[in-house]
Amino acid sequence: MTSEQAQVVPKNLAEPLWGSIGFLLSKAADQVESQFATALGPHGITPREYGILTTIARRGPQSQQQIGSQIGIDRTTMVNLVDSLEESGLVERVRDAKDRRRYALTLSPAAEKLVHKTLPVVDAETHDQYLAPLTAAERDTLVDLIRRLVAHNADNAAR
Amino acid sequence: MTSEQAQVVPKNLAEPLWGSIGFLLSKAADQVESQFATALGPHGITPREYGILTTIARRGPQSQQQIGSQIGIDRTTMVNLVDSLEESGLVERVRDAKDRRRYALTLSPAAEKLVHKTLPVVDAETHDQYLAPLTAAERDTLVDLIRRLVAHNADNAAR
DNA sequence: TATTGTTATACTCTATAACTATA
DNA sequence: TATAGTTATAGAGTATAACAATA
Predict the structure, then answer these.
(1) Measured in angstroms, what separates residue A77's CA from nucleotide D11's C1'?
(2) Domains contained in chain B, number
(3) I need a surface site. Which of A14, A126, B36, B97 has the fewest CB within 10 A?
(4) In a domain, A12, yes or no
């Protein structure tokens, strides 16, 4: 997989790049995001907005840049996303009293309910569906392997 | 990972979404592509152009749409990519004699050399570096798990 | 009528630079 | 001087519609 091609793959999977870990990761990431976006659609948010909401829920009110840096979104891109969340009535831009340059992004009651009741179910269902072909042990293994890869390559990454 | 958050993760990895397989896959895919793009840069091609070249090399001359469908690139996007490869002298647009609507994209001698001598090395080095934290057995496991996921979700995928 | 490649167009995502208000 | 948020802008990547040549 790393270098050469003489790999035995299922018939319909005998595409040229099916031995490439990069191609596989890219495909898998696209699939998960697509399915997650479809599942989130009825609730009026996108996967990235989900990331913002859950980040606030777990870490408390934070500035836009703090949130963006945790989930890999530029501060200029955060502006539009927070605009959208604010228009949806899910997030409020509250000025940080200690530093009035920044906001303390806060979840609305509707967002609290969404994050703690609805979204965990959507998240679980989507992941269960996507990971269906794997056993519980295999799922744990997969997460462990990818987490180690991402951690190891986090520094070097150009990104 | 599938649903709940009470996961034990390394300190610096205790980000809100580090238990989400979708977030991890997305991060990993970004890292690999970034590193691969950096490695390919000196050779004048991008990861997607690499995909086109290797597809022609393995399956022989094909139409732009045939190639695009195998690596997930729209036919309108293929036009620009092939333009670029043609300007670089790596690919030639030869009319298919049996169906003059389509081309039989062909590798130039320079591309043949690149694909068979240079790129396998670049590919191997990039993957070895990215997969460094995993043992050989773990690498095989990873590819197997992701391949099964991608295959299983290929049909349902909205894309 | 249908299909391949093409062009024009638009939409999303992202990033850079410059501005404002605060520090 | 530096930082958080904002705006304008531009660049990738992608997708839709319409067209010419060919089937």
Answers:
(1) 15
(2) 1
(3) B97
(4) no
Domain contains A148: yes
A10 touches B: beta carbon within 8 Å: yes
d(CA B32, CA B40): 12
Judge: A21–B120 Cβ closer than 8 Å, yes or no: no
Nucleotides of D under 7 A from a protein CB: 3-8, 13-17, 21-23
Q: B115-151, pLDDT tens digit by residue? A: 999 999 999 999 999 999 999 999 999 999 999 999 9
Whether A28 sits inside 8 A of B32 (CB atoms) is no
Q: Which residues pair with B62 in a beta bridge?
A: B105
Q: What is the CATH number of the domain that holds B115?
A: 1.10.10.10
Distance to chain A for B89, nearest Cα, Å: 22
Summarize pLDDT for B14-70 with one digit per residue, the tens.
455 677 888 899 999 999 999 999 999 999 999 999 999 999 999 999 999 999 999
Q: Is residue B1 part of a domain?
A: no
Query: CA nearest A60 in B: which residue?
Result: B16
B104-111 long-range Cβ contacts below 8 angstroms, 24+ apart: B104/B61, B104/B62, B104/B63, B105/B52, B105/B56, B105/B61, B105/B62, B105/B63, B105/B64, B105/B67, B106/B56, B106/B61, B107/B53, B107/B56, B107/B57, B111/B53, B111/B85
Please indicate, yes or no, if residue A137 is contained in any of the structural domains: yes
Both tokens of B54, joined, read: 């290797």
* Residues of chain A contacting residue B24, judged by C-beta atoms under 8 Å apart: 143, 146-147, 150
User: Which residue's alpha carbon is at the shortest distance from the C1' of D21?
Assistant: B101
Tokens of B124: 């191997």
- Judge contact between B137 and A118, C-beta under 8 A: no
- Range(s) of the domain holding residue A39: 22-158
pTM as predicted? 0.85
